[in-house]
Amino acid sequence: MEGNSSASYAGIGGVGSNIWPLTGPEVVSREKLKELRVRTNGPGLYNLAVHVLALAATASLIYFTSGNPWLQVPAMLLYGTVIVLMFAPLHECSHGTAFRSRWLNHVVGFAIGAITMRPFLYFKYRHAAHHTYTQHDERDPDIVPFPTSLREYFSMILGASFWPKLVGTLVRGSTGNYNEEERTFLPASVRGQVSLEIRLLVLLYVAIAAVSVYFASPIALIYWFFPRVIGEPVLRAIRMAEHTGADESPDLLANTRTTLVNPIIRQLYWNMPFHAEHHLASSVPFHALGKLHDHVEPHLKHVSKGYIQVHREILGEVLRLQREARRAA
């Protein structure tokens, strides 16, 4: 393993590392954990069916509003939101907890990875590093620095750094020329498999583009690419709420935020708003996170009532930092 000890990969099968010893999971007893971590296919298949139906319903809105941009653009945003929220089942499959069957986690994970342009195997190892080093300012590959200005805040929401990273992942993965950060969470033994998946995805995207050009068809743009792009800010806002403004410490009770949301978002985001609970016990399937929340809520430092409240607090702090910067100038 190049330049790192095996502790770098602890998140794939364990919690934390000797470099960043995570605390907090001790509030969940072994008996409770054993009760909640039981995996089954039913809830995942149900949630997947609901998500597919939501995709079909919102895609039909695009079709029926064709020719009226004042209606079609909002329809695309709604459809795109449902698409980007597929990040949740992709994420759950990467933990092997969306379904009991291992092959089902992989098949669904690969399929959603293709739709959302997130290579499944690459994400699996990157996300494992995020769990191992949650909120470590150097080793957490998904840490979101707190915005110090309105410009930085809206840049994050619009994905100014996300899209270059995504394109870079596809380019580097296709060539097998991974950067230094990626080599810390991608063991040498799996890089060939990760590159193979990425090359197949890139070939798929090139084929879709070629067919679209040959037949002069806008279908892929209207029902996939454009909605996928314009929906991303919704996911950026949700993902910012998960850790931004929380403690940059190894205390899982304080470095992750749970957000209490309405049943529709909770359904389409596969219970991931219970994010502190997920980090405390990532082996607990999504459908049991509500029960885990009831068990650990008194111990959690950051529990917010909705994403609007979270972003109101973030923006309030951003404005305060801007005022301080102006006074110091």
TrEMBL record:
Pfam families: FA_desaturase. Residues 69-308 form the Fatty acid desaturase domain. Keywords: Membrane, Transmembrane, Transmembrane helix. GO terms for molecular function: sphingolipid delta-4 desaturase activity. One of its GO terms (biological process) is ceramide biosynthetic process. The chain crosses the membrane at residues 44-64, 70-91, 103-123, 202-226. GO terms for cellular component: membrane. InterPro entries: FA_desaturase_dom. This is Fatty acid desaturase domain-containing protein. The lineage of its organism: Bacteria, Pseudomonadati, Pseudomonadota, Alphaproteobacteria, Hyphomicrobiales.
